[in-house]
Amino acid sequence: MAALRSLDPARLVAEALAESPVVTRWSSAFAEDAAGPVATPLDRQRSGDTLLVAIGDAAGPMAAGACAVLGQHLTAGVVVLPGGMPHPSLLPQIRAHVSGPARSGGRTDAARTNAARDVRSLLAGTGPGDRVLVLLSGRVGSTLIDPEPPLDETALAATLETVRDAGWDPTRAEGVRGVLDRLAGGGLADLASPAETVAIVLPEHSSPAGRGLAAAAVAPPVVTARDVEIALRRSGVWPQLARPVRTLLEAGRLAGVSTHPDVETTWIDAGDRLPAALRREAERRGYAVQSLGDELSGTGARLGAALGRAVGAAQDGLAAVPLPACLFGLGSTSRDGLPGPNQALVLGAASSLAGRQGVLLGAIALDGVDGSTDAAGGWVDGSSTDRAHAMGIDLTSAEQAGAALERLADRLVTGPTGNGPGAGDLYLALIDGSGDRA
Fold first, then answer.
1. I want to staple 210 with a disulfide (CB 3.0 to 4.6 A). Which of 68, 203, 239, 263 is the partner?
2. Model-level pTM?
3. Which domains, and CATH codes, for the chain?
4. Given this model, what pLDDT does residue 8 score?
C-alpha cells in the first residue's frame, strides 16, 4: 500500500507545484501579498489574485494538494468533481460543485451547467497581474458543460449523444465539443487570459487520446468548426442535428481559425510512477522484484489462473527470480459481465495456490472501483481454498466473488482514489516460502 500512495493525486500535485518554475516565480509575488481577509470573487479587487480551477475525477484531492502548497495565497477557487469521487475538506475560499454524468435522451445534470457558470464568474475580468492554476483530470467534459450561445445544454448534450450513437470514438466526439462548448477546445485558457495560467493534468492514461481528453479545456482544438462540419456531413449525421447546431457550425466555418493563449502544462502520468515505487518498496522489504508486464489483460478467472500458475512456478524455482520475490503486473481485467472482475480474478487463482505456504496474490483497480462494486479488488493465499471449504463458501462462482471474499475477510475496499478508470489494474504477488505445502 505504501507504493500505491505514490499515485495519490494530492501528493502528485504538491510535487509538481514544488518543481514548477512558474510557481517558483509566483512565490516572489506571494511574498508581497498584503495580509487581510479573503474577499469574495464578486467584490474583490482583481489585481495580483491567485485563482484555482480544478475539474474532473481527481479534482478534490488535486485541489487539496494545491491548497497544501499555496495555502492562503489562493484568493478563490472552484472545484468541480463527479458524484462519488473523493471530496476532501478545502480552504473556505474554495467552492466545490458535485456534478453527475450526462443523462440519456439529451438531458443533462443541471449541476454541470451551474459549475460552468461558477467557473466563468471566477475567471471573468482577470488581468495580466493575476495567476490561474488549472488542475484537470479524467474526462473534463463529463463533469461540466458550457454551450456556445445560442445553444442550450439540451442541444449540446443531444449532439454529443448523436455522434456517440453513430459510433464516433471519444477523441472525435471531443472535437465536436471543442467547437460547441465554451470551456472546451482551449476555452478555459481563453477565459483566463491575460492572466498567467499554469495547468497540471492527470490523464486517465498516457496515450495521446487520454491526454487530449483530459487537457481539452486548456489545449488548442485539434480540429476547426469546418473540420467538424465536414466530418458530420460525410458520416450522415448532419441531418439529425438541431438547426441551431448546424447554424453555429456553419458560422464557425466562415469565421476561420482562432488563436488561443499558450498555457504551461505539466503532465502527471501516474501509471508510469507506480512500477518504480513498487520496486523501491519491495526491495526495501527484502524482496527480489520481477515485472510481469504492463499490458496484461484477460477475463478474471482465466487471467487469475495464469497468474496463480506463474506464482507457483516462481516458488518452485522454475522462474528466474530468487526468493523471497515480489511479482507485479499492470493491465486491465476484462469486465465480461462480471460485477467485480478483479475479485473474480483472485478467485481464479485460488486453486493454483491451494496448500502453498508463504504466497499471496492480489488484484486492485487503481481507481478504487472494481467493476460495479464498492471494492477495489481482493486477495487470496494458500489457505483460501481450505478456509472457504470449512466455511461452506463456493469459490467457483465468479458472479459471487465479492460475497465470497467478504466472508473470507479478503476483500479490499479503498473507496474511489480519484484516478480515472483508465488507470487500470495492479496485479501483485508476494512469495516468501520454498514451495512447501500445508
1. 203
2. 0.79
3. 3-268 (3.40.50.10180), 271-431 (3.40.1480.10)
4. 84
